[in-house]
Write a structure and sequence with these properties.
Blueprint lengths: L12 H11 L3 E3 L6 E3 L1 H20 L3 E2 L5 E3 H4 L3 H7 L5 E4 L2 E4 L2 E4 L4 E8 L4 H11 L8 E10 L13 E11 L2 H21 L6 E4 L11 E8 L5 E9 L3 H5 L3 E3 L5 E3 L1 E8 L1 H10 L16 E6 L5 H16 L5 E3 L6 H10 L4 E6 H6 L1 E6 L8 E4 H30 E3 L3 H9 L5 E5 L6 H10 L1 E7 L2 E9 L2
Parallel strand pairs: 3-9, 17-18, 17-19, 22-23
Antiparallel strand pairs: 1-2, 4-8, 5-8, 6-7, 9-10, 10-16, 11-12, 12-13, 13-16, 14-15, 19-20, 20-21, 23-25, 24-25
Helix pairs in contact: 2-6, 13-14
This protein binds one RNA strand of 77 nucleotides through strand 10, strand 13, strand 16 and helix 10.
Length: about 475
Amino acid sequence: MKTGITPTRSENFSEWYQNLITAADLAENSPVRGCMTIKPYGWAIWELMRTEMDKRIKNAGVLNANFPLLIPLNFFNKEAEHVAGFAKECAVVTHHRLKMIDGVLQPDPDSKLTEPYIIRPTSETIIGDAMSRWVQSWRDLPLKLNQWVNVMRWEMRPRLFLRTSEFNWQEGHNVFATHEEATADARKMHKVYADYMEQVLATPVIMGEKTPDERFAGADHTYTCEQIMQDGKALQAGTSHDLGQHFAKSFNIQYLGKDGNLQHAWTTSWGTSTRMMGGLFMIHSDDDGLVLPPLVAPYQIVIIPISREENEQELNDYAEKFGEKLRSLDIRVMVDTSDMRSSDKMWKWIKRGVPLRIEIGAREMESGTLTITRRDIGKESKRTISCDDLYSSVSDLLKTIQQDMLERAKKRNEEMITSVESLSELESNLSNGKIGFFRIKYQETLCPKFDELIEKYKISRRCLDDKDSEYVYIAKSY
RNA sequence: CGGGGUGUAGCUCAGCCUGGUAGAGUACUUGGUUUGGGACCAAGGUGUCGGAGGUUCGAACCCUCUCACCCCGACCA
């Protein structure tokens, strides 16, 4: 059978992924090294994702703000671990003017900045600086803010959506009076992320704390949402950090307590990015292309008139009218009346992952029926029903699709996790080419032998298991 | 920064070894026949051959320099 995407997932997963993105018209590589251009259809998905996430962030009592793109170099220098973590991947702004010299446009040597700026790789520092001024009294706490911005990390090995030098994200930054509140907040946002990924993206999540070797630079605790891709590799889809007093001390975020004592505050930070889109695509899509869960599909339904020349106008009008009716139910509908062969239109929207496809031909127009096909199931879900029945059941149908996609992904996840007792059992699995996550006692991994396995099989500790933190998940990762 | 590779039509690439003035597939445009899971026929447009210099009567091809990008390692939301 012909597939929408070649090669298929089993033939070559990473090439399949590249072609999936091209075929679904989501994004492309840009002229700027490591940076992608997100195309309108891809950005529409991000906007929907963002809207849902923003709602949840606001429900958590956080307002949005906006800080500068550029961060003074010395800000970065204030937290030692943080610098160590990011120094190697910073884009640096050193001049403020261009000049034509010998016919070549270049930075004007006379415009050199006395202190360079770096393009934010993350904003703990510049936000920490602001917070030191905004926090004076215990009454100013907690202070919670978030920003939706792009950041830049000069990555060595970029991949569309999964790791790009520039990416879009939200970064939340909260300040608290006590350690307990901050710890609870880091945990809370971790939970907000996991719920969001399951309920909105239909992508199941493994929740846990990062081991010290994988922790965010400058954090006491990092809580992560790990996802399992169809090839068994891990994707870190979102993290929440308990920053302790590292940044409060580096940036002097201090408040006068009820007791009259000046003390350092406690901060958290938490972020999710366009990387989550990569997870969304890699978890649900199949060999015919993208499969989108209804909640983040730019078009939840596509209507394709199956027309001949003689009845084209009539059928298009009819389809438009029905599309309008569905829109009144708050459903995002595309009626494709473009001048293409109807079979071409079908493949186009299959590849773009529209959850539900409706076909209307001349006979159906007569009888008040239509043909529907679910994207997540495919051809075998094709059936003809009356317009009235669809109208009354379509909202539930979209919910069912959303739910089924989550269940399917959850089931696959279970099959992807292997429990092992010992390092030798782990190694025999790896050497046999077993893919997926491995769950093992954390203690077992604290030895040189495990470091060898890390080298040899390119695996890493993904996280301790939140359900039982004596266990750690091991996997290859993106 | 190490190791390998590639720059030729919108895209994927052939041509280079053995110099003679640029091709295929695909996409695109037009017309016709088609049309419920990827149609076919015909006609048509498309290039500073990454850049600079050199050798030559003549360079996509040979030589020198240069720039960019890709893959493998260190990094990561």
